[in-house]
Design goal:
2 strands
């Protein structure tokens, strides 16, 4: 049951983020350009499973999009919220699909299941 709840939580986060992005009126071209950027964190696996898991997890936690919005909202407010929403939506979609945070034992070992 907890695993199922985490999947539904991902769906809820992604749906809420998409709705907020729509209401914001931000560019869907920007959305398409940035939606997969968090997956660049997988490149950490080129340095091994420990570095890979750490970098991947850093790019796939809700904390960093919140910090991005908080920090950039003073410097570049027109890009801060759309970028943070896109990142949050990406994480929500990943969770909904079962791609969880990684354990250092290997890329396929996640907090949701073995991929």
């Amino acid at each position: 049951m907890p695993k199922l709840l985490l999947h539904f939580e991902g769906i809820a986060v992604a749906a809420a983020g998409l709705w907020a992005y729509h209401l914001l009126g931000a560019s869907w071209i920007l959305f398409a350009a940035l939606i997969l950027v968090p997956d660049l964190s997988m490149l950490g696996y080129l340095a091994g499973p420990v570095s890979g898991a750490r970098l991947y997890n850093l790019g796939h936690t809700y904390l960093l999009p919140g910090l991005l919005w908080l920090c950039l909202s003073f410097l570049a407010p027109t890009i801060a919220l759309p970028a943070a929403l896109i990142w949050t939506i990406h994480i929500g979609i990943d969770r909904a699909l079962g791609f969880g945070l990684k354990y250092e034992s290997g890329f396929k070992d996640t907090h949701l299941n073995r991929v």
